[in-house]
Structures are given as structure tokens and as C-alpha cells.
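new request in #modeling-help
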Amino acid sequence: MLNLENKVVVVTGGTRGIGFETVRAFYENGAKVILFGSKEESVDKALNELKREKKEVIGYYPNLTNYDDVSRVLKKIYDKYGHIDVLINNAGISAKERIENTTSEDFAKIMDLNVNAIFNTCKAVIPYMKENKGGVILNTSSMVSIYGQPSGIGYPSSKFAVNGFTKSLARELAPYNIRVNAVAPGIINTDMVASLSKEMIEPLIKTIPLGRIGTPRDIANAFLFLASDMASYITGVVLSVDGSARS
Ligand code: NAD
């Protein structure tokens, strides 16, 4: 029903957390999946774990903030498979410091990975999708892109930018049958959340109407839907997957 069989799917930040579960979910639905990570060791670790699960996935570790490097690796993938159908821009870092403890370098670092890297992967993949007469680009936003957050200013700023990027690129690429959407996760049980203090997380959970934090599979399922033909008339949306959290 999802029609993802043999689709070539690239997932950035695919070595753990939401991205790793997304890799699994697409593989289970018949896609050919390529994961990107930040370094060789984490890519190897993820690929070995998938191998133990009898899932055949390949991986690379391009510097996402460098257009030439990203472009080189995406060309390699295109040359191998002849098409790239789905790009999932999921790699991201967060921040929690107050603005007085944040340097301009800290701020720039977040924008570089969470925003500029998405520009790089999209710019490099779009010619292949145009040639293929279609494709799907999915970005990982966050619920902080809707409500902001009381510290770590670079993180919500970057995710607001992701939403603007998504909506604008969707309009630019619609004539080419390339759909661009984002998923805005609420609080999801990954390393990123494990690094936050109990004092920060517990009051947040109390505000979630569905009464639990989300799982990486909750987000992977949203990506599956948005990548599938079932979402063929959906572009330019930021889909909240957050148990209706309002923080
Ligand atoms: P995570 O820290 O578990 O995983 C992050 C991934 O990004 C890893 O695969 C890592 O290799 C990759 N990455 C980090 N720095 C990188 C770099 N410099 N270059 C290339 N890759 C890099 O995080 P997660 O919680 O799975 O988050 C994934 C995405 O979901 C992020 O964009 C994050 O902002 C977003 N998100 C997470 C939550 C949450 O509650 N966990 C909520 C909202 C949005």
C-alpha cells in the first residue's frame, strides 16, 4: 500500500535515534536505504547492528556542511542505483544554554548543520529527482519550531528556518512532481532527549495529552506515510507528531 518497494532512500543522521529507526522502517517496507552519519565509527556501528538484524543497508559519512562533499557522495549513490527517490534530512543538533552563555560560533554551528546542510543535500539531489520526474524530500523539524523554547536559542531558530525552507521549496519544486514536507516531532525517546535533565523533561511530559513521550517509530511512521503514494497530494506541510504537546 505504501509503494516504497525498491525506492532509493537516503537518511541523514541515520546512525541512531529517529534516523536509525527510520532506516529500519523503510528497509522493512522494501526500500533500498542509504544512511549517513557524522563519522566512520558510528556508521560502522549502525551498519553492523542492521547486519545482525539481517538488514542490508549501506552508509557514508559526508561532511553535510560542505556542498562539494555531499554532492560527491550523492553522485556515487545515483551512479550505483540510477535514481534517488527519497531524501530525509534528519541530522540535527540541539542546544540548551541561555543566550548569555551562547557564543556566535555556537549559534552558527547549529544553523550550519540544522539548516545549511539541508540546503546542501537538497541542492545536490534535486537534479537527480528532476531527471527522474519526481521525488520526495522530508525534513525533521521540531515542535519548538511552532512554540519556541525558553533557552538554547539556536535550536528553535534553526527549526523555524527548516519550516520556511520546507514550505518554500515545496512551492518551487511542485511543478517537477517533487514533494517537500517536514515532520515536527514532540519529545521523542532518543539520546538527544536522554541528555536533557529530569527537571526539564518531567514537567514537559505532564503537558502531553496522550500521556507519554514519543518513540522513534512514531516519527518513522510519519516519514513512511509522507514518502508514500498515499501522500501524493501533500506538499509543503509541517506535520506535528507530538501527542498534541503544547510547550
Ligand atoms: P540523535 O542525537 O539521537 O541523532 C542525531 C543524528 O544526527 C545522529 O545520527 C548523528 O550522526 C547525526 N549528526 C549529529 N551531528 C552531525 C554532524 N555534525 N554531521 C552529520 N550528522 C550528524 O538525535 P535524534 O533525537 O534522533 O534527532 C534527530 C532529529 O530529530 C534532529 O534533527 C532533531 O533536531 C530532531 N528532533 C528530535 C526530537 C527528540 O525529542 N529527540 C524532537 C524534535 C526534533
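bot summary: The mean pLDDT is 96.
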